[in-house]
Structures are given as structure tokens and as C-alpha cells.
Specification:
The chain is of the alpha/beta class and 521 residues long. It folds into 3 domains: 7-221, Rossmann fold; 225-321, 3-Layer(aba) Sandwich (Rossmann fold), CATH 3.40.50.920; 343-520, Rossmann fold (3-Layer(aba) Sandwich), CATH 3.40.50. It is 39% helix and 18% strand. The strands form 4 sheets. A 7-stranded mixed sheet has the order 3-2-4-5-7-6-12. Strands 9-11-10-13-14 form a 5-stranded mixed sheet, with helices on both faces. A 5-stranded parallel sheet has the order 15-16-17-19-18, sandwiched between helices. Strand 16 (401-406), helix 17 (407-423) and strand 17 (428-434) form a beta-alpha-beta unit. The protein is globular and about 75 Å long. Bound molecules: thiamine diphosphate. The site of thiamine diphosphate has 25 residues, from helix 4 and helix 17.
């Protein structure tokens, strides 16, 4: 086959997806979340890849992981907090190992451009004992993802592939190559490997520890962990995008650039520190590399705690090197707001009038917390709009608690909360803000839209039916432009000693055309 050599300007997400395609990827799952969303959207164009938006990250992880055990190279993609939702299968998957290659792509969001926290998912590599790869740029992401599949298959392990917002969304010229089909693998019946009852899991734990010893040897010799000796007075141990930032400010310094950062290449770090006088560890968020160096007794300098909070910007580098605290210039911010014409606005106008506590959730509607509405009082994680309604309504006296949750979030992790509320005799009102899409992340379909990631028509989940069978006493479906009816119904349901769901259904104003197009296709 002639080698393709087309050059394209791709984002890190598109580059990663292209690399995975070329590596013979056959199965891809995920749930939308900034900054990861475009990876799966990009993969969905390829006929050779079975790709899906799953209903949440736990399900996505299990489906993709099972496909890998079944014999197809597979990938799971989510934002950093998505991996928390998938933590249960994630942790035990390193015991069972894989069959065909399985890569876990986690897109972390230092600086929380669009997230509820800025956890550093590199730390999960240590807990789960999985190899960790970290590209510095889109070009590297494309090449490294191929290595990730090879590594996974060679060592029978899931591989964590960690991206960050800047790498996901910055663009670089990428050379496209040909797809190489991976060698076919068959599923083998092997309960000792795939049935994690304690006896078998103990044996697999032993395998895992042996694997870690082997992987340690690989990180020591891997070309992804590269020593560049220049000026021997100043050197950096670094990974991810901070490597490029440091290079801009200190092109003549020495570098230990880590691309395969766990298991930590201890001997390489030791060798580097022997050759360079002043070694500074440069990394975003947690002192992950720094602590690994300290455990080895290496004399390295890290960053001040103030730089563990928020993104590292290129202009911070000299201050980190000088051992200073962060001195960030404050820019006057322009708060976001619900779009004019957004149907959620109509609901929050009413909630503002009623003297109620509102337990919120994650989606566009979280903006109900800000003026002019100022009527959303809690928001922790996806699904908590309903569970907080239960916990708060059972503790706060004198005020009613209304839970709000979006349609995509309801399917993601609201349904279980509603079943719990009904089972445990909770009273009160839940409002499902159903705008017919996952608006917050750019309008992805979910089961209640009746469309798949590939735009195909599928079974349409009926939210009101789910609410009824979950145990809601009343389910009202109201277009929120019928403001008076909505207010009247909400007041009535609040006055009753029942568990009620009101579905405020009207399409997202930005997605009306998109949704119409899907329906007509
Ligand atoms: C565990 C987790 N996964 C993904 C996300 C990203 N995310 C935040 S809200 C949301 C869904 C929003 O859709 P919906 O609930 O329908 O509300 P809308 O934005 O449409 O109003 C997603 C995917 C997240 N914050 N946490």
C-alpha cells in the first residue's frame, strides 16, 4: 500500500484520534466532557471503528474494556472527572489485564476551564498500577497513542494516556499515515484471568506486581524518557506541555523530558541529577514527578504550592525557577450566563420567586447560581441534583427543596438517585430541564434524543416513563414557555406530600436547527 503523507492542521484531540485510527483501533466509547469531547466525535467518522456515546463513564469504560478482552483494540475517552465515575472497573481492570490493546484516555483540565475540580489523574497510575503516557503536543499525541496500544498488548495491561486542555485544544501540523490493522485476537475462556473472585484476584495481583517490575525496566530505557544535556548548571525534569514552555524560556538548559512517566524511571532521573547541578521539576498541578524524585533522595527543586493551583502559564516559568510564589495579574472577568432565549431561564425565573432551596447539578443550568437568577444553592457532581434534594429535604426544616437536573445528566446518573428517593420515601419536587441535548459540551445526543454518536436513529428513551417506573408519584411534562402553567404546577406539587417530577421540555435555543436536522434525516 502506498504510504499516505497528507499534512493537516489538527488539534491534539484530532491528532490523537487519527493516531488511534492508524493504530487499528476498532472500538471506542466515552461520555462528553471538556476538553475530551472531540476525540470521540472525530473517531465517529471512521467506518472501521465501532464508536458510541455511552450513558456515563462507568458504562463506557466497561463496554470498551470488554471489547478489548473480546479481541478488538479499544479506547475509553473521558474528561478527568469522568474517570472517577469509572473508578470501580478501572481499578480491577489492571488485575485482569487485556487481550487486544486497551487505552484509557483521560483529558485533565488544569485551571478548570470547564470543570468542577482540577484533579491530577497521573496519581491514578500509581493507585491502579498502570503505565502512564504523557504527550507534550498534538504531534506527540498522535505517535504516542500507537505506542500505547503496543505497550498494552505486550504487557497485558490497560494504559493510561493523559492529555491536558492545552494539548487537546492547541493545533499543530500533523502528517497522516495509513491505517495498519492490528493482528486479530480471539476471546479465550480464562476465568482465572477474567473472573475476579478473591482467589483468582490474589493470583492476578501477584501478576500485576511482576508486570510492574518489568514495566519499570521499560521506562528506564524508553526513548519517551529522554535526557538532553546542554548547560550543566541548570536542568529541568518535566512532562506534558510544561516541557514546551520551559524550552521557550530556557533553550540552553538540560532536560529530562518524561513521556512515559509511570512507573517512574528512577535510574534515569538519578543519572540526570548526577550530571546537572541545579535541577528543577516543572509540572502542572500535583508534585507527581517531584515526589518521585524526593522518594529517591534526589536534590531537586519543585514549585511553590501556589503554582499547584490553576494552570501553569508560560509566563510563570521564570518565577517558578526563582522559587517565588505565584503573582498572577488579575484580569477583570466577564461572568458567563444562560443564553438569551434559553428555556432554562424561564424555570429559574419561577424558582427565584418561590422561597425554596434548589439543589443543582452540572450542565448549562448550573448558571442559575449567578445573577440575575441567584437561585441554585448546591452543585457537587453529575447526578447530585436529585440525591441532594433527598439529603437536604430530610434535614432542612421550614423550606422546601427542589432538585434540578438536565436530561443528559438525568440519564448519566440521575436515574439511580430517583430510584433511591422513591425507595426511601422522599417527598418533594425534581425538575428535569429537558432541552433535548447535552448542551453544555456542544450538543451531543444521548438515549432520550433517539440518535447515536454516528447520527443513526435508535431506540428513544422516554424520560417520563423512566420517572414513573422509578417511583415518582406525579410526572408532569410542561413546555416552560407556558410560564403560568409551570408556576401553578410547581406550587401545587410543592404543597403535596409526594415525590413529583416536572419535566420542563423545550429544545435548546442553539440546538434547534441541529435537532431539527437530525429528526429530518
Ligand atoms: C463525570 C462528568 N462527566 C462529564 C462532565 C461534563 N459535563 C458536564 S454537564 C454535562 C451534561 C450536560 O447536559 P444536560 O444535563 O442535558 O444539561 P444542559 O447543559 O443541556 O443544560 C456534561 C457532559 C462532568 N462535568 N462530569
Amino acid at each position: 500500500m502506498a504510504k499516505s503523507s497528507k499534512i493537516v492542521l489538527y488539534s491534539g484531540n484530532e491528532a490523537l484520534a487519527s493516531g488511534a485510527y492508524e493504530a487499528g483501533l476498532k472500538f471506542a466509547t466515552g461520555y462528553p466532557g471538556t476538553p475530551s469531547t472531540e476525540i470521540l466525535q472525530f473517531l465517529s467518522q471512521f467506518d472501521e471503528i465501532d464508536s458510541q456515546w455511552s450513558i456515563n463513564e462507568k458504562v463506557a469504560f466497561e463496554v470498551a474494556y470488554a471489547a478489548a478482552i473480546g479481541g478488538k483494540r479499544s479506547i475509553f475517552v473521558s474528561k478527568h472527572v469522568g474517570l472517577n465515575v469509572a473508578m470501580d472497573p478501572f481499578m480491577t481492570s489492571s488485575y485482569s489485564g487485556i487481550n487486544a490493546g486497551f487505552v484509557i484516555v483521560t483529558c485533565d483540565d488544569p485551571g478548570m476551564h470547564s470543570s468542577q475540580n482540577e484533579q491530577d489523574n497521573r496519581l491514578f497510575a500509581r493507585i491502579a498500577k498502570m503505565p502512564l503516557l504523557e504527550p507534550t503536543s498534538p504531534k506527540e499525541a498522535k505517535e504516542m497513542i500507537k505506542f500505547a496500544f503496543e505497550l498494552s498488548e505486550k504487557f497485558d495491561t490497560p494504559v493510561i494516556f493523559r492529555m491536558t486542555t492545552r494539548i487537546c485544544h492547541s493545533k499543530e501540523n500533523i502528517i497522516l499515515g495509513n491505517r495498519v490493522e492490528a493482528k486479530a485476537r480471539n476471546f479465550e475462556v480464562n476465568p482465572q484471568k477474567y473472573v475476579m473472585i478473591p482467589k483468582f484476584a490474589l493470583m492476578r495481583h501477584e501478576e500485576l506486581e511482576k508486570r510492574m517490575i518489568k514495566l519499570k525496566k521499560v521506562t528506564e530505557t524508553s526513548t519517551l524518557n529522554k535526557i538532553e544535556i546542554n548547560d550543566k548548571k541548570l536542568g529541568f525534569i518535566t512532562s506534558g506541555v510544561t516541557y514546551l514552555y520551559a524550552k521557550e524560556f530556557y533553550p540552553n538548559a538540560s532536560y529530562l523530558k518524561l513521556g512515559f512517566s509511570f512507573p517512574f524511571p528512577a535510574e534515569k532521573a538519578r543519572k540526570f541529577c548526577q550530571q546537572v547541578k541545579n535541577v528543577i521539576v516543572l509540572e502542572e498541578l500535583e508534585p507527581f514527578i517531584e515526589n518521585n524524585c524526593r522518594l529517591l533522595g534526589l536534590k531537586v527543586k519543585g514549585k511553590d504550592l501556589s503554582f499547584c493551583i490553576g494552570e501553569i502559564r508560560p509566563e510563570f516559568i521564570p518565577d517558578i525557577v526563582a522559587g517565588k510564589k505565584k503573582n498572577e495579574k488579575k484580569v477583570v472577568s466577564r461572568p458567563p450566563q444562560l443564553c438569551l432565549g434559553c428555556p432554562h431561564r424561564l424555570v429559574f425565573n419561577i424558582l427565584k420567586k418561590l422561597d425554596v432551596i434548589v439543589s443543582g447539578d452540572i450542565g448549562c443550568y448550573t448558571l442559575g447560581v449567578l445573577p440575575p437568577f441567584s437561585s441554585l444553592h448546591t452543585c457537587l457532581c453529575m447526578g447530585s441534583g436529585i440525591t441532594f434534594q433527598e439529603g437536604l429535604s430530610k434535614t432542612i426544616h421550614g423550606k422546601k427543596v427542589v432538585g434540578v437536573i438536565g436530561d443528559s445528566t438525568f440519564v448519566h446518573s440521575g436515574i439511580t438517585g430517583l430510584i433511591n428517593s422513591a425507595y426511601n420515601k422522599t417527598k418533594g419536587v425534581i425538575i428535569i430541564l429537558d432541552n433535548g441535548t447535552t448542551a453544555m459540551t456542544g450538543g451531543q445526543p444521548h438515549p432520550a434524543t433517539g440518535y447515536t454518536l454516528k447520527g443513526e436513529i435508535t431506540k428513544n428513551l422516554v424520560i417520563e416513563d423512566i420517572c414513573r417506573v422509578a417511583g415518582a408519584d406525579n410526572v408532569d411534562v410542561i413546555d416552560p414557555t407556558h410560564v403560568e402553567l409551570l408556576e401553578e404546577t410547581l406550587r401545587k406539587r410543592l404543597s403535596e406530600d409526594k415525590l413529583s417530577v416536572i419535566i420542563a421540555r423545550r429544545p435548546c435555543i442553539l440546538m434547534v436547527q441541529k435537532i431539527k436536522k437530525q429528526k429530518n434525516s
